[in-house]
Fold this protein.
Amino acid sequence: MTEFDDKGFRTRLSHGGRAGKRVHGFVNPPLLRGSTVLYPTMADRRALAARRGEQVLTYGLGGSETHWALADMIAAIEGGTRAFIVGSGLAAVTVPLLAYLKSGDHCLMPDSVYGPARNFATGMLPRFGVETTFYPPEIDEAGMAALIRPNTTVVYTESPGSHTFEVQDIPAIARAAHARGAKVLMDNTWGFHFFQPFAHGVDVSIQALTKYAGGHSDLLIGSIAVANDAEWKTVHATAAALGQYASPDDCWLCLRGLRTLAVRLDAQMAAGIAVAEWLRGRDEVAEVLHPALPGARGHELWKRDFSGACSLFGVVFQPEYSVAATHAMVEALDLFGIGASWGGYESLALPTTGFVTRSAGTGEFGGALVRIHVGLEDVADLIADLEHGLEVLRAHRE
């Protein structure tokens, strides 16, 4: 994608990862499936084996042009050098953790981290002799420096948080981590291209491409992008050792999803802000957790570090509305489905109170929470649907 590096985001999404306009053939790159790769001679096999780790066909697990086109697109979108495509967003979390952590090491994770990442840190990593400490996501540079131990090798970040949308001061955290020799990993799924991780000190960026990149709620796929060749060697070696692999069919579909990503992100950002502003004006709502809203938690950091926002945010209801009342509300909605993913074309509403684990004393907002994802429906229709849901909510007031 180097020939398009100086072009705008939409242009890069339209022209990257394909042969170009001066080549005879179809616009989209072909879908390549396969396991066995044939070599003309043993000398060719030895020569290709010596180049292991480069983008050459060696065996199905090593990927193909279909995988590499998507990886190059993701690396360019995030401003990294290279990327590796894996089978899910969770795999994109676990591979770099295993790449940088070993027995006796210490890991730091924000208390607001994605639930399966927390489960991996508390369930799997201790079996390998790795200890994890969960820290308040709004921590400053001095606070982070105080938590880093001599054996802390990874500082994990996720900004904003998955359910309560705390924006982290990534540059400050990175300064503290790098000063003490720790690597900074970041789940950048919410920010996607709105946050440029490597320009802010991140070493490895994690994406659930399942979300906005796929865009149609029918893929499970993830990516791991890196800041430099040294990080690539570490991540790639671990991914290869674990046999991590993404289906070429899913890579091809994700590439297709990327072509329309910019217009979808713009439309969903505007719709998400409109719905969030409407909810913030409702008497039933105590607070809207959307960092792009002026005055909202994390807004100043968001304004400093992000160029835009996705359409996922949280709603805190007034204390008189119980968790059961929020369940009744979302069950009454016609256009918002009850689902755990996001980033697709359809709107979702998911009660989160009672389903989110915290251990560092964070995440208390004084009311029941619901996470909202705004899709591509008409905003007026979504607001009318929420109006009906709030009527049901009021009927269940304690």
Remarks:
- Residues 261-395 form a domain with the Aspartate Aminotransferase, domain 1 fold (CATH 3.90.1150.10).
- Residues 41 and 47 are 10 Å apart (CA to CA).
- The chain has two domains: 2-259, 261-395.
